[in-house]
């Protein structure tokens, strides 16, 4: 079997009494785009800093391409990194910063660097102090990709990018993966990673909740319908796949897994005046799915022909 691009065994980090990461076991293959999802404070940045050797683990081990991350020099030889909060030297221009970082890492592909600058639409002649968060992010992305590293560790890289640039970033990630590079992408939004990642890990309070193929997760996730109604809200909780029903001003918000046709038919009897439907955010998935009682969750999973995610808390049957 090929050496994993990223491997962690029992990786744990305590900050005093705070358990930022608790026994993470993970394996990411070369050429994968792997989403690392979790709400704020879940432990994503801590994991990435442990992988970079910027933090020492309390327990456990991690390897990049088979090299222990404690061997910082060797493990870093082919890693690109975008931190969660990009700070750049304020008095240097984007071009000067890229030259500086390029000198540190060596082997910059200058044609690729220029292409990245153009595709991400950032002006390298400006001083970093005048850059918006999005522009700082873009310079960090150019720096991470321009050496064609084997592994890209990207901590919420699209925060601050507009949708067009987010799409460009996704194209870059796909091209990197097609060339055999591994992209490890953290995010607190499922939307941001679902188009581009093959597999995702979900982290919560430092604990790995689930590793799933995106297709499986999508089957398990719900649709949120918000309907304004003419008449009183009809009964909905007896319908298949209902995970939640909440009253709204002049209507109702329904969370449903699978096809929502039966819900729409029932709502139609009360006269729908306005209807909005959206995919749940990661937070909502946690709230509606992972906090659903275990028997209900298992029933939902079985109905969709997939295995149920492991429960988060102590609610095992
Ligand atoms: N240096 C530190 N000292 C003390 N606690 C810390 C430190 N770094 C992180 N933590 C705590 O560890 C937990 C995990 O934080 P981490 O930054 O890894 O989460 P995250 O998933 O990256 O969240 P975010 O999306 O908000 O950055 C949080 O409770 C955080 O407050």
From TrEMBL:
Q: Where are the transmembrane segments?
A: none
Would I find Cell inner membrane among this entry's keywords?
Answer: no
**Where located?**
Cell membrane
Question: What InterPro entries does UniProt report for this protein, alphabetically?
Answer: AAA+_ATPase, ABC_transporter-like_ATP-bd, ABC_transporter-like_CS, ABC_transporter_ATP-binding, P-loop_NTPase
Q: Which GO terms describe its molecular function?
A: ATP binding
Q: Does the keyword Nucleotide-binding apply?
A: yes
Looking up SMART domains in the UniProt record yields: AAA
Where does the ABC transporter domain start and stop, copy by copy? 6-230
Task: Identify the Pfam families for this entry.
Answer: ABC_tran (PF00005)
- Print the keywords alphabetically: Antibiotic resistance, ATP-binding, Nucleotide-binding, Transport
Q: How does it sit in the membrane?
A: Peripheral membrane protein
Recorded hits in PANTHER family, A to Z, give: ABC TRANSPORTER ATP-BINDING PROTEIN, ABC TRANSPORTER ATP-BINDING PROTEIN NATA
**Its family?**
Belongs to the ABC transporter superfamily.
**Name this protein carries in UniProt:** ATP-binding cassette domain-containing protein
Organism of origin is: Longivirga aurantiaca
